[in-house]
Amino acid sequence: MEAAPTVLTFTVSDDDTAAALGSGSLPVLATPRLLAWCEAATCAAVEGQLRDGETSVGTRVQLEHLAPSPVGQEVEVSARVVHTDGRLRRFSVAARNLGPTGPGKLVGSGEVTRVVVDGDRFLERISG
């Protein structure tokens, strides 16, 4: 049986826009913020599978930003595990603008790959 996707909802604020983040000049959802929201959904999806001291790190992203979302727009972001191999987790991600009748226009879609690591050992490797 396939697991249900993890779903998070965000509201586009002035701080989330391309103009605010330097990824363009328009007051619409910035691609870097969309990516961060997709990664947040994957982190939430893997969280329940982690043992004490474990975390996950992003290693690969493929994301298409397909439609604009203005300030004030609610955006639903989902992450579904599509492949597991040992410590590796690959997720299908999708973001949709929410309307009065639920999820609507597809804003973005892609894949995010994360690897489960021991947090302390990971930090030791980079500190020294």
Task: Estimate the helix proportion, in percent.
Answer: 10-25%
Biggest sheet: strands side by side, in what order?
A: 1-3-4-5-2
CATH superfamily: Hotdog Thioesterase
How would you state the average pLDDT, rounded? 95
Taking the alpha carbons of the first and last residues, their distance comes to 44 Å
The CATH topology turns out to be Thiol Ester Dehydrase, Chain A
CATH class: Alpha Beta
Outline the low-pLDDT stretches. Answer: none
Judging by the overall fold, what is the CATH architecture? Roll
Helix- and strand-based class? alpha+beta
Total number of strands: 5
Q: Hey, roughly how much beta strand do the residues contain?
A: over 45%
Question: How many distinct helices?
Answer: 3
| Molecular shape | globular
Biggest sheet descriptor: 5 strands, antiparallel
Radius of gyration (Å): 16 Å
Our count of domains comes out at: 1
InterPro entries: FlK, FlK-like_dom, HotDog_dom_sf
Protein name: Thioesterase family protein
Organism: Nocardioides panacisoli
Pfam families: FlK (PF22636)
